[in-house]
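Structure (tokenized):
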């Protein structure tokens, strides 16, 4: 049996799960020849010593972005109608009409949305996107690479990028089985799956139901439930430092207890820095009551703004910044590459802080894996004005309906209550951990440490 697996990286997102975890060594131990089919600027052979075939042709058909943008908007319109909702359209971002090029694109998208927002219309858009990408030089280029290297399977690590479409079509047209991993807990309701592989790998039963609900062209037998390698590091005790070693490395005060504030990207939380300030003010207040507290600020790896700087400076008596160990290999958000060292850093921050505060992030699962609580800020800031997105809508998103109950996280709905809630968490009077663990199981699945193994089992089943 040919056991050459092309692990396809359309962008940098898949690196974290499939190049920096135990996924590669597990596959090799099972006799697979693993080659990273690499569409990113990251040099896998040079940096990690793994085999790679680089995709240097990045050309999309000029109309592909118009049709993919329209497809997403039309699908969200269909979901709103089909499921009697209004929430799906909140996943759309405003289009730009500045400059002739942008205006032509955005008006073309608007026309398609006006005429194709039906199930039949979406089908037509899907067919058109495939037709456009099959006509590109990139498609022929990828076909040539596949003929030369003869993989037994192409496993796509992220179904969202337009860059994934031509390579997957090229593999399918050559009769090579294709599969894709749904990489995030919010991918499916947001209508972001742009490729249509032969098989899908999802985290849990919950995600499988979502996939079948939102992608009616997928059959249940095409779906493998595997979990995600994303959380495996939290269960690897070898990564954990002693408290003393961790505190010493990051010049923390051993007598202090630290709270983690996990920063968000500017789209999810445009006024994020003010929630960090609120937490800092609560910590100062509690320190005056005899507590000895600090905050570890972990910035969002793909946030390039300087919006926290003034707050970090003003509250340096209580806030210590520990930056994620990611590094840029390009200028866009999906070209910021994680490192193995960051898995350990993140696990140690979870282990050695009291709880995490943030806005609507999956960090709730990282912390619950360490039996720590998560506080979600859910109130407006006075700086909110027209044109700035209110963070409250994050909690209305479909993926938050996976919560077994509201007790799966600790919500603060009023700034005035923040200090008392922080105090209650520190004193062990409130926690979301028991229900949070149930939520973790719903979303991530029951065996979070076995995801890499299960993905290889799925690949094996496909090849057989």
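Design, position by position:
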């Amino acid at each position: 049996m040919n056991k050459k697996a092309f692990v396809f990286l359309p962008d940098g997102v898949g690196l974290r799960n499939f190049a920096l975890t135990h996924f590669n060594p597990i596959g090799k131990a099972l006799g697979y020849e693993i080659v990273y089919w690499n569409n990113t600027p990251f040099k896998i052979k040079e940096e990690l010593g793994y085999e790679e075939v680089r995709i240097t042709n990045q050309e999309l058909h000029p109309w592909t972005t118009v049709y993919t943008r329209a497809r997403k908007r039309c699908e969200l319109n269909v979901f709103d109608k089909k499921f009697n909702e209004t929430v799906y359209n909140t996943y759309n971002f405003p289009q730009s009409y500045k400059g002739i090029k942008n205006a032509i694109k955005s008006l073309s998208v608007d026309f398609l949305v006006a005429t194709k927002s039906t199930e039949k219309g979406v089908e037509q858009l899907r067919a058109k996107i495939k037709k456009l990408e099959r006509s590109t030089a990139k498609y022929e280029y990828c076909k040539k690479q596949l003929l030369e290297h003869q993989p037994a399977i192409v496993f796509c690590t992220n179904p969202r990028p337009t860059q994934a479409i031509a390579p997957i079509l090229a593999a399918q047209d050559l009769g090579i089985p294709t599969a894709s991993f749904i990489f995030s807990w919010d991918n499916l309701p947001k209508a972001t799956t742009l490729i249509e592989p032969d098989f899908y790998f999802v985290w849990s039963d919950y995600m499988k139901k979502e996939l079948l609900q939102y992608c009616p062209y997928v059959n249940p037998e095409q779906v493998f439930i595997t979990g995600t390698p994303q959380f495996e590091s939290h269960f690897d005790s070898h990564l954990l430092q002693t408290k003393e070693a961790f505190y010493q490395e990051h010049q923390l005060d051993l007598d202090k207890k630290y709270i983690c504030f996990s920063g968000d990207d500017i789209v999810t939380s445009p006024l994020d820095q003010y929630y960090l300030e609120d937490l800092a003010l609560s910590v100062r207040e509690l320190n005056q009551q005899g507590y000895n507290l600090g905050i570890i600020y972990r910035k969002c790896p793909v946030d390039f703004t300087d919006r926290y700087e003034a707050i970090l400076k003003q509250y340096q008596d209580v806030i210590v910044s520990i930056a994620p160990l990611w590094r840029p290999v390009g200028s866009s958000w999906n070209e910021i590459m994680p490192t193995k060292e960051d898995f350990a850093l993140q696990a140690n921050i979870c282990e050695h802080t009291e709880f995490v505060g943030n806005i609507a992030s999956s960090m709730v699962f990282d912390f619950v894996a360490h039996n720590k609580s998560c506080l979600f800020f859910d109130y407006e800031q006075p700086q909110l004005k027209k044109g700035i997105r209110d963070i409250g809508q994050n909690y209305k998103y479909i993926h938050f309906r996976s919560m077994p109950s509201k007790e799966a996280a600790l919500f603060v709905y009023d700034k005035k209550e923040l200090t008392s809630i922080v105090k209650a968490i520190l004193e062990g009077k409130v926690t979301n951990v028991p229900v949070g663990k149930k939520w973790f199981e719903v979303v991530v699945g029951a065996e979070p440490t076995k995801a890499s193994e299960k993905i290889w089992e799925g690949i094996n089943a496909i090849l057989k």
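Reviewer-requested clarification: The mean pLDDT is 95. The chain is about 40% helix and 15% strand.
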